[in-house]
Specification:
DNA binding, three-stranded antiparallel beta sheet, WH-like_DNA-bd_sf, 13% strand, Arc Repressor Mutant, subunit A, 6 helices
Length: 106
């Protein structure tokens, strides 16, 4: 491989917005996303309070923010039931389920 080819191959890692590795690390760099994915993979539909009880050292705000980020990324889905009081359940999407074999084997 020539120096020019090597330089071209390495260029994708210097672009902060398009680097494939940086994008993955930014989504899963904290300790909470992977733990939440494991909880949701073991329990098909899980309510917010159930997740919080399973992770007692996470604050409600951090849990809420992490769930929103995972939902925005299409990894989990949030289902709101029109009941009083409102019932909200979280579960993995197909994309989220496709990640689990890699997470479980690590």
């Amino acid at each position: 491989m020539s120096k020019i080819e090597l330089k071209e191959n390495l260029k994708k890692y210097s672009n902060l917005d398009e680097c494939p590795i940086r994008n993955i690390i930014s989504r899963f760099s904290g300790k909470w996303p992977v733990i939440i994915l494991c909880i949701l993979s073991e329990n098909e539909c899980t309510r917010f309070n159930q997740i919080q009880k399973a992770i007692p050292d996470i604050s409600p705000k951090v849990l809420s923010d992490t769930l929103k980020n995972l939902e925005t990324d299409g990894i989990i889905k949030r289902i709101v039931y029109g009941e009083v009081p409102p019932r909200v359940e979280y579960s993995l999407t197909k994309l989220g389920l496709s990640l689990m074999p890699y997470i479980n084997n690590s």
